[in-house]
Amino acid sequence: MTANATATPAAAPPLPRLNDPARLRVRYVAEARFRIYGVVALAIALSFLVGLFASIISNGWSAFLQSNYELPVYLDPAEIDPDGKRDTSRFNLADYTAMARNAMAKSLGLPDKLDRATKRDLKGLLSRAVDVQIRDTVVADPDLIGKTVKIDLLAHGNVDSLLKGAIDRSIPEARRQLNDRQLQWIDKLVADGVLHKRFNTGLFTYGASSQPESSGLAVALIGSLFMMVTVMVLAVPIGVAAAAYLEEFAPKNFLTDLIEVNINNLAAVPSIVFGLLGLAVFINFAGLPRSASLVGGLVLALMTLPTVIIATRAAIRAVPPSIREAALGVGASKMQTLFHHVLPLAFPGIMTGTIIGLVQALGETAPLLMIGMVAFVVDIPGSVMEPATALPVQIYMWATSAERGFVERTAGATIVLLAFLFVMNAAAVYLRRKFERTW
């Protein structure tokens, strides 16, 4: 054997068998275990979601029903219009609550002369809003004065809670909101068909009130509508224009990189910071009225703008470069390419991002609290400069009220808000599926 003979190389270790039954069994078990983890996580998430919706619906469905009395009310001319001049300003001075109380006493078969305790108990069955209800009936048609007219009058919140099962009859009278005599009267009125429950239109037509039975979402709905219109008018065109410039025209340098980073950071800024900005700029500096829908819309527009810009840039970026190249190749300018080809193809993504931004703005509360949109507003606002509130703020205010009737009002308003959010999200999904194109 020669000295320079090469040594025989050591044999390479055998490769593991890919179809080894033991290894396959371990892999299949791991995959099955991972699927079980996924199913368990999904089941837990769905259980929490179902529990949340069940709690809201169980507490809030009764808010869409309201107890009312159908009473024949004698519109006493001596009380309403003693001079006979049909002066509507004089109509406001009449004691309409006494007329409603007398009408209820007659329905119960009580004597004409009532002692103080009986008057107090009868008044405790009627809402404070009956005074306004009867007055509005008289103002709408003064010819009714001197006649007996059947009017639907709101029941007191305690009566409404009793009929909905929120007040327990079995607890002692001293700790119950309604005494035994009032319970007997309520049972008689129900048996005679005078007291009944019907769909609560007042939930959508009444403004703010200290009484739950006469509280509604009208001011919040109109205020939210004004704010959403303001957000759409400001955030959508500005956001789309900014995204189109950054994506199609802006040079790539340090300044544009800084702008992009700040836009992404603004999308993650807590919403209350935008409220502080709106308080400092729009109210303290610009002098805009506090609690106005315009201020709320401006604040929400600033908060929504980063979301619209990011979504629009992603939609524009998703358009294939070949579309731009083909348009430029046949002589189109960059502006024509953008407006005639890129933006129409990016429209589904832009609409989806815009609707998602509006949904986020509709559910915001913190920035609106900072600009004072927690005002007690009774009258429905007629313009964006008048005081108003918003749906989430109204829910917050009702949740902090101590009266029992506001508990169901809070859950009922939450159902309305969730319905709006669901419709808007469904619209975003529909528009995306209808107009999107696959490349």
Features:
439 residues, mainly alpha, MetI-like fold, 3 domains, 3-stranded antiparallel sheet, 18 helices
- Counting structural domains, the number is 3
> Which CATH-level-2 architecture of the largest domain?
Orthogonal Bundle
- Helix/strand order: HEHHHHHEHHEHHHHHHHHHH
Return the CATH topology of the largest domain: MetI-like fold
Derived from helix and strand composition plus strand pairing, the structural class reads mainly alpha
Low-confidence stretches: none
* Radius of gyration, whole Å: 33 Å
Q: Taking strands numbered 1, 2, ... along the chain, how are they ordered across the largest sheet?
A: 2-1-3
Number of helices: 18
Helical residue percent band: 55-70%
Q: What is the arithmetic mean of pLDDT? A: 88
Name of the top-level CATH class of the largest domain: Mainly Alpha
CATH superfamily of the largest domain: MetI-like
Please summarize the sheet with the most strands: 3 strands, antiparallel
* End-to-end distance: 70 Å
Q: Percent of residues in beta strands?
A: 5-15%
Instruction: Please state the overall shape, judged from the principal axes of the Cα atoms.
Output: extended
Number of strands: 3
